[in-house]
Fold each of these.
Amino acid sequence: MNTFVKLIKSTLIIFHMGDDKSGAYAGFGVRFAALIIDLFIIFFILQSPIHRIMIRSSISLLQGSILEIGFLLLVFILYDIYLTYYFGSTIGKKLLGIMVVNKKKVKLSLIDSVARHFSKWISTLTLGIGYLMILWDDKKQALHDRISNTYVIDNPKRRIGNNLRNILVLIIVTFVIIYVYYLITLLAFGFKIALDSQQESLSKVNTLNSIFAKCNSTLPFYSDICYSIYANKVEFKRLDLAVKLDFCHNIHNKNQHLNCISTIAVYERNASLCSNSRSTYLSQICKKSYNATVSLVEKYYPEKEFILNGTLNVTEIKFGLWSGSSCLELQNYEFLQEDLFCFQVNNVTGFVKDEDGLNWYDVAVKQYKNGNLIDDQIEVYGKDGQVDLKNNFLDSAGMHSRLNGTLPGTYSYQVAIYDKIGMRGNYYNKTIEVIDLPIDKLNIQGKLLGLEIGDNCIQKHTDVYTNRDAICYYPLNVSGFNATIDNLYIFTMDILFRNQSGEIFYESKGIYSDEDPRILRNGILNLFPDVGVREDLDFFHLVAMNLL
């Protein structure tokens, strides 16, 4: 508390009020407080009804914003010029008992009032230094006062006592300091959260719980900012619509809540979602924001026109699972989030060469969920597709994409192989299902967990290891795999270490992802000791753990 009192006293010294006697020059503090009162009248009291009128009108958000700012600026200019000319002071100056005079200590003429007002713009353009001149000038003149040859003095007829005025100035200055501190705090929190959101990924399985855990705070405004920022993450945008809208209702601040709803509406390209805002007024703001955002995106980031004028001759087309060297078709198109979905065409003809004798082929991919376009890539190969094809014949081309940013659900792909020179190509469509990792779907008859010694895995009598050991794990006689159309099998293994609290503190995934597909007799994996995992424990601290 003492620190706060000292801060206020220091503020009073810096924001010098001026002398007590009538007619003395007014100091920085009382003039600053008067300006805050005037700005509050113009930009808070008048701005709110004007803003509501603009929002409820039929004009666009951009047009409304320009008209609103222009109108308020015009009102402020007339307010300052007329009141200073007619009364010698604005409402703020009148309340605090100060007035503007010329060198003869009388009210300004209309021309002087106009000159003084527009001289303020010069003080503003100096980044506020023109105003700070009041602090060290003998006659408490700001830059615009010197330019217009005017002074601000205590009004001889003022009805407010000096002590009461000082208290009012102190209250206003304190409020401004607290408000500025609040804004700086919000900016600092927002910057930190935005930085963290770029560096940290969200859980694909439990996205909402992941956001709630990261945004948990005793400060409501911190949680609201955090929720709003994470609502722009790709993982959140790909959640089901009902889940996303329900998430927005966890945000208490109306502006952050509105931002959350607007983000979803723009992503879903559905302005009607704005009706989920908390009031009709906020819904109207959301719709105008939606229209403005979509218009800007369409203007500056138009969808590239992609029209094919003919077809290519393709012998073989495959959609499936990428094995590391080829695209394997599946009997059912179910994929895990860590799989590599692939498209491949073989033996393609019909290309033409350019003036330099080169061909240029490429692959275009569009991904849809619930009929909404969520990913669009026209050039997969880019410059790498500019080659010299012998006899205009392409052996193989395609694409593969890991589904680790894709949540469980049904997705549709539209893929095209095309000739960029002749703009001829073929479209192909495939619908796939992304599923969660099934638990206990495979049948494991046995397992070996032990100590790695040389090329052998020795089972121990106890599950106690030192950080000098190497732990080994081998599954035995595993069945339940699904085969590809060619009766091949692809498998991989993950190793997860959990502590006693169940938290994963180490993991290694996709250990066999790059292996070629194998033939399993009767669909049973029994390749001990070729298939297993081995991990050194030299970097582990003393901990009780579970190996999954």
Amino acid sequence: MRRGARGRGGVPRVGRRQLRHRPRTRRRRRLPGERGELVTALPVRPLDPAGTVAAPGARLGAIGRVGNVRWTICGLLFAASTINYIDRQVLGILAPDLQRLIGWNELQYGYIVSAFQAAYAIGFMFAGRLMDRLGTRRGYAIAVGLWSFAAMSAGLATSALTFAVARFALGLGESGNFPAAIKTTAEWFPKRERAFATGIFNSGTNIGAVIAPLTVPWIALTLGWRWAFVLTGAIGFIWVAVWLKTYAPAARHPKLSERERQHILSDREPPESPVTWRPLFGYRQTWAVMVGKFMTDPIWWFYLFWLPKFLHDNYGLTLATVGLPLVTIYVLSDVGSIFGGWLSSRLITSGWSVNAARKTAMLTCALLVTPIALVSRARSLREAVALIGLAAAAHQGWSANMFTLASDMFPRGAIGSVVGIAGMSGAIGGMLIATAIGLLLQLTGSYFSVFLMAASSYLFALLFIHLLAPALALADLAKPVAAGFNRPAGPPEGGGHFQ
């Protein structure tokens, strides 16, 4: 080869071959943490998922194992939510047999269900404040202890009145579950893990909805219906004992390593001034969430408390045979919950506005509910279960988006209060509809009007939500209350359709 011959890029051909085979002589500088060293500090403070600078140590969870005490606490929250739904469902599963044994009529059963709903609504007003005052350790134990005692006491009931008293106490206790669980999550998890932890403990409600139809009939058939209340209620006291032994605030938990403690506190925000309920009633956004919950939550309560009776009255199902249809319906509802959240998120990532994505997902779910109007005319059990399962799945998909409306339209400091108001509104709706359903069934003996109401409620609810919050605009809490409520609810920019 000629001297000076060059290849592409001006590199001599011979030189390029030599470079390819020449061993590296420059050693790479080792980084902290290699060869097992513990990284105690980083040269640059990391960013949290929101894009803000996190505290030193915020990445401890990502570098090595920081411990799992916080996930043990999350497991207890999951267990409490599971027990909560098991105790709630016992009456509905046993209702067909209890109506025959105790002798109540449809209207009296409606009053029993209304007693639970009324207490649940009242409890929502005070549960959060109780947890703030007593702390989650004592407050949660009191709530679970109260509802467990109430659940067991139903096993001693001998009349519709004594059942109503027991269910009222159950509603008061169970109303404390979610405020306590949410507060515990905020105390024990950094922001970037809270959504995942909340999803875990909230899934306990779905597990409870599936476990109850599988276990309660077996207990009632084997030991008697009173033992079904006693044994399921007793589980709560076991939970209380484990909770009191295990739980302590993260700042002084004896089994919490310093590394995990720093991880938990890594992005702790300064406490915000609480937002009181009264001013929030002056904003259209609050009423949008309230109306949505008021009109649709009662439909889910109807499924919980009347489906076993409907399947018994129309298809002759007994305690021995009702389990599988109910499990099928609640498993489908779990799928619907995932679908509803996925659909709106998918639309947003595809470039849709939050307003259009949320309302399109909710409209889809509202339309999927409508076939339930035909369920009372279903020709077979399989057809009825399919229609109810579709409606239950659509409800859960709807609810997944309803819960996000509060965070879409309110600043972080007001979300908890808005969720509390919405939960109370849904419970009040459940109380009223329980009495109405009992009266309708007592007068007509037919479920047709009830399912027709269930089929149409979601479309009307979405209409009212759109009229009250056409753009899902963020509420400006700095403005006077009157201005916030009386401000015209005109359409979003560009027209009245979903933007």
Amino acid sequence: MLINNMWNNTVNISTDVLNNDVIYEEVVSKEVVQKLTVVFVMIFTPLFAFFGSLGNILSLVVLVQNRMRNPTNFLLAALAISDLLFLIHSFIFSFIFIYKSRDPIGGENLRRTTYPYIGAYGSIVTGRITTWLTTLLSFERFIAVRFPMRVRFLCRKQNTCIAIAVVYIVTLVAFVPFPLKYRIQYQPNSSLVILNRTALGYNLKFCAIYGTLLNILFRFLPILLLILLNIAIILAIKKTWNMRRLISKNSNHCTTYEQNRITMMLLTVSMVFLVCILPGALNSLATKVKPGYSIFGKQRNLYLSISCVTYFLETVNSAVNFIIYMAFSKKFYTTYKETFCCRTGSRVHKSSSKEIIRYKCRWQGSQSSSSGTHEGRLSSLLSNRTLIKKEQQQPICLLHNTGDIEICKFSCQKGERKDVNEKTERFS
């Protein structure tokens, strides 16, 4: 696998250079490989990993808000977690490269110590979880577009949570044999840590068959399903567009518009995923098809050059989802502003869902009371509700938040002042 081979690259260079039996084809020079490693692995990957991690943390905070809790956002929250974990592994991977360039022995010892748990397991597992969660997102959106009347039943919160749990648990368990293939040995008379294979690791037939099976189930199969689902979604949108316009006449136009934006957002997430992941999948497939194209083959330099770029693309895929959410989802953008961009005087106190605001109404005489009806007086009060006596000491809370509806009830009699309660209702 690509991630596994990239981590192997940090160890096997010294071993492979000493092997005089391997003659490399100079398709790509060693200097080009070193430059690509510096640019993509040591500079771009840690930058995207750092800022992408911040974006995934912000996405997770927004998606767990009460108003954002729906099946689609549950999947997006689970995706943010897997992306965050993958970016952490990417950052560690880049740090090992940088550390090894400064201290070859110390960096190599760190790589060998962490490889069984991070390189051979953690990076691969988080990447494969992201793959299947993205496929589940497309499947959920396909049901919403193709079977809009059944989406409430098929894509319930309970079903979505079960699907997320299955993806995480099955993936974590399926890749357990990978770290068991290695063992770490410390030699008392040497400062270099030795990474050896266990009996399972020496079972080359099992490793080849099991690795190929997992590569199909957790890489190529979900990518194929993702392509087919996205094509089906596009065709379903085109086919049912007129039907949705007819339905929208009897429903909330804002809701229909927001659903269309969500569909476009998820399609964008899927397209970015395919653009960033497909090159790595094809690169991995090429190692099985083309002899000599591997980390130990004759075309080693070409393989390492392409692997640097494809690994960086996988990092980009896990880092840009926050930008996509902000660009396409108005609800996500609004919730983000209300959560992180607090403005003075724009939020209601959270201690109660009902705020009591006192107004004082003063009547100017018998002319105003006799010249209009009760409805006219109520309309006048509603239009002038912000005009309050200067001597009133209680602060007035003006409701500007999206989702707050003011329902004012005034009860005034001629020639006297009376306090009026304003009740607010909040809906999600």
